[in-house]
C-alpha cells in the first residue's frame, strides 16, 4: 500500500517541476552573435546601401544567428576618427571612405584610382593586398568594397566650361582631392561633408569635389548650379571590421560573412550604383534645373590625365613599402581615357 502511494506522488512532483523523471533538461537557447556597426554617413545616404543589403542577407542566411546592429553615423564618431575607434574595438564594423583615414593607411586612397568592376579587381589580387595593408597598419579587416560604377565630379556655384575656369577657385576637399585641385590652379579647403552646404551658401568655397551619387541626399543641389563632367576615378567606399572581432567569430560565421560580402560587392553593388547614377543625373536636370557641363574633349582628356597622374605622383611616395607595387598593379585599371562612367 505504501509503495502505491509513493510512486504517484513522485510523478506529481516531477510534473510540478516541469518534467517527467525520464525527460532530459532542455538545451539553453543560443543568443545570436551581434556585430555592432557604424557608418561615416547618415543612415539613408547611398554609400550605406550595401550595408543594409548585407544586414538583410546575413540574418536570413544565418537563420538569425548572425546579425548587424547599426549604432549610428557621423553623430557617433567623426569620419576622420572612426577607423581609429574601430581599431580600438569601440565597435565592430565600419563603412567609410579611404579619404577619411589616410593618416593611418595612406595607401587606401589608391583604391579610387582602380577603375573597373570589383570582381576584376579581386581576381587581380587588388582586394587581398588592400586587406593585408589594412590589417597590418590599422588592425582592421577589409571585408569588401561597397560602392562602384560611378566616379567623382566637381560641383560649382558658377559655370565652369573649360579648365582655365578652375584657376583661383576655392574648392572643398578631403586629402585625396588635394593634388588634383592644386594642379587645376584652385585652392583646396578641407571640411566634413556636413559643412559643405553652409560653406557653399555663404561663399566660403566656390565649389566642392564629391561622388557623382549622393549630392541630392544631402540637399547640396540647392547650393550649386553646375556639375562638371567627365567624372574622374571610381567612387569606392570600404566596409571594415575590427580584426579581433572578426577572428572571434566561428569559422562558419566568418565564411558566411566573407562569402555574402563578396557576392554583394561583385554582383549587387555595380548594378545598384549604375541605376542610382542614371536617376541622379536625370533628376538634377529635369527636377531641379541644374546644369551638367561636359568639358570640351581636349580639356576633358587633360582633366582626367591630371586627376590620375598628379595623385599617383603625390601618394606613391607616402608608401615606401607598397606604393610602387600598388601602382604597377593598377596599370590595367588606371587609365585616364576613355571614361568608364
3D structure, described in words:
There is one protein chain. This protein has 341 residues and is of the alpha/beta class. The chain folds into two domains: 33-147 and 236-275, Bacterial extracellular solute-binding protein, family 7 (D-Maltodextrin-Binding Protein, domain 2, 3-Layer(aba) Sandwich); 152-233 and 290-330, 3-Layer(aba) Sandwich (D-Maltodextrin-Binding Protein, domain 2). The protein has eleven helices and eleven strands. The chain has helices at 2-16, 49-61, 82-87, 118-123, 126-138, 178-183, 196-201, 243-248, 251-286, 297-315, 323-330; strands at residues 33-39, 66-72, 93-97, 140-145, 152-156, 170-173, 187-190, 207-211, 226-232, 237-242, 291-294. The strands form two sheets. A six-stranded mixed β-sheet has the order 7-6-8-5-9-11, sandwiched between helices. A five-stranded mixed β-sheet has the order 2-1-3-10-4, sandwiched between helices. Helix 2 (49-61) packs antiparallel against helix 9 (251-286). It is globular.
Amino acid at each position: 500500500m505504501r509503495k502505491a502511494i509513493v510512486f504517484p506522488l513522485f510523478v506529481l512532483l516531477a510534473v510540478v517541476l516541469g518534467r517527467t523523471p525520464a525527460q532530459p533538461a532542455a538545451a539553453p537557447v543560443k543568443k545570436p552573435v551581434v556585430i555592432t556597426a557604424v557608418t561615416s554617413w547618415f543612415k539613408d545616404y547611398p554609400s550605406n546601401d550595401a550595408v543594409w543589403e548585407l544586414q538583410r542577407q546575413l540574418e536570413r542566411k544565418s537563420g538569425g544567428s548572425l546579425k548587424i546592429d547599426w549604432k549610428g553615423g557621423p553623430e557617433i564618431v567623426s569620419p576622420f576618427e572612426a577607423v581609429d575607434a574601430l581599431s580600438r574595438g569601440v565597435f565592430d564594423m565600419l563603412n567609410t571612405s579611404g579619404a577619411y583615414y589616410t593618416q593611418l593607411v595612406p595607401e587606401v586612397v589608391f583604391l579610387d584610382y582602380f577603375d573597373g568592376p570589383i570582381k576584376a579587381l579581386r581576381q587581380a589580387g587588388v582586394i587581398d593586398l588592400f586587406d593585408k595593408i589594412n590589417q597590418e597598419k590599422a588592425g582592421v579587416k577589409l571585408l569588401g568594397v561597397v560602392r562602384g560604377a560611378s566616379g567623382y565630379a566637381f560641383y560649382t556655384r558658377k559655370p565652369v566650361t573649360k579648365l582655365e575656369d578652375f584657376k583661383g577657385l576655392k574648392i572643398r576637399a578631403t586629402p585625396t582631392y588635394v593634388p588634383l585641385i592644386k594642379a587645376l590652379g584652385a585652392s583646396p579647403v578641407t571640411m566634413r561633408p556636413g559643412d559643405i552646404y553652409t560653406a557653399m551658401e555663404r561663399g566660403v568655397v566656390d565649389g566642392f569635389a564629391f561622388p557623382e551619387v549622393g549630392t541630392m541626399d544631402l540637399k547640396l543641389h540647392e547650393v550649386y548650379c553646375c556639375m562638371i563632367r567627365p567624372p574622374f576615378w571610381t567612387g569606392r567606399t570600404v566596409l571594415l571590421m575590427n580584426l579581433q572581432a572578426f577572428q572571434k567569430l566561428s569559422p562558419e560565421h566568418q565564411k558566411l560573412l566573407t562569402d555574402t560580402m563578396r557576392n554583394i560587392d561583385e554582383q549587387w553593388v555595380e548594378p545598384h550604383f549604375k541605376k542610382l547614377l542614371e536617376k541622379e543625373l536625370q533628376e538634377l536636370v529635369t527636377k531641379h534645373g541644374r546644369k551638367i557641363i561636359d568639358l570640351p574633349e581636349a580639356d576633358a582628356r587633360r582633366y582626367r590625365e591630371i586627376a590620375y597622374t598628379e595623385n599617383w605622383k603625390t601618394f606613391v611616395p607616402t608608401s615606401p613599402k607598397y606604393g610602387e607595387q600598388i601602382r604597377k598593379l593598377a596599370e590595367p585599371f588606371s587609365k585616364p581615357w576613355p571614361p568608364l562612367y
